[in-house]
Amino acid sequence: MNERLRKLPTYPMEQLAAWKLQLQQKGTPVFDFGTGDPREETPALLRKAMVDGLGAVSQYPPTAGTAAVRRAIAGYLQRRFGVQVDAETQVLATMGSKECLFHLPMTFVQVPSDKDLVLYGEPAYPVYEIGALFAEAWTYAVGLSVGNGYALDPDTLPDSVLKRASVVFLNYPHNPTGFCLPDALFRRWVEVREEYGFVLVSDECYADLHYDGPRPKSLLEFGTKGCLAVHSLSKRSGMTGYRSGFVAGDPELIATYRKFRASMGTAPQEFVQAAATLAWTDDTHVAERVAVFAAKRRVLLDMCRERGLVVHGSQSGLYLWLEVPSGTDGAAYAQRCREVGILVAPGAFFGKGQDRYVRLALVPTLEQCRDAARVWPK
User: Fold this and answer.
1) In Å, how far from its chain's centre is CA 35?
2) Is 109 helix (H, G, I), strand (E, B) or coil?
3) What structural domains does the chain harbor?
4) pTM above the 0.90 mark?
5) How is 93-104 classified by DSSP, letter by letter?
6) Cβ neighbours of 311 (radius 10 Å)
7) Which of 8, 46, 75, 258 is the most buried (most CB within 10 A)?
8) How many CB atoms within 10 Å of residue 80?
9) Tens digits of per-residue pLDDT, 134-162?
């Protein structure tokens, strides 16, 4: 076995699933705020599009995605961010965001070389590290905190690190904290990318889940050369189980990635792409879903205020980033929550230096959120 992989801890979502099973085996009612997998139904119009998209004969789907879904994605980028891309040369359909983020280091990092580094902010979605390790690349995790708004700033990094970077991951709205990146830092990252020549990847899968302040931006609003943006329909459109998303940006990078995707065997099924075509075209169902998440968020924010619990960031995305009470840490507080059937993710699941926090995913129903709020520990 790859020794670098052997050292990885249990994947956080697997640990959360194990804790949930333990509670269920005890007969404890579970309020699952752990894994980000919303309970709301996939919108009926999308389910119908999938059914209607089932052909009588099953054949291999096109590697890049159907022309229809790529046109719909280009339309979404224009409508949502004011970004114009060519559907043929600048867009690829993916099976959600995770598989794409996992594969990008394998595609763009040459090992060994003097540019063998994958850089990302921490706390982080674990796939940035895992994808780098599978690619035999080295990782550089930049510690982020409440003090700097979890904003990854290139001007705080050593020149030697930026020179060695091959792929840099941004993730805003940020998982797990829900902070957004200021425009000035998007611009600065584009400038620094031009200087050092790495591939700049922006994981934007929560861009349409927003509650307070200015709407989240896309990296592609600030530049496309050497830049890629990754999006997903999982939370936005209730399609976590159907695995549908896209990557868009620099046509040369897209052409390189497209060349190898056939070998990866991850082209989305055409009936899923039929639903995705509609999902990227229709904004109404997204607004309806965001309204439901916002209502659940209000219930939990009210509960936190009543108990004197502090929530940081969380203006966007599917999560609340909760600071635990003094005298405890995230792991211990998560254990206290499990004693009353509430499942939350300790901050340490997402990286070093996050022991004072837990992450709450807005996944139980609104009524379940209200029930959980009544028994939530202080």
Assistant:
1) 12
2) coil
3) 3-32+285-375 (3.90.1150.10), 44-282 (3.40.640.10)
4) yes
5) EESTTHHHHHHH
6) 18
7) 46
8) 17
9) 999 999 999 999 999 999 999 999 999 99
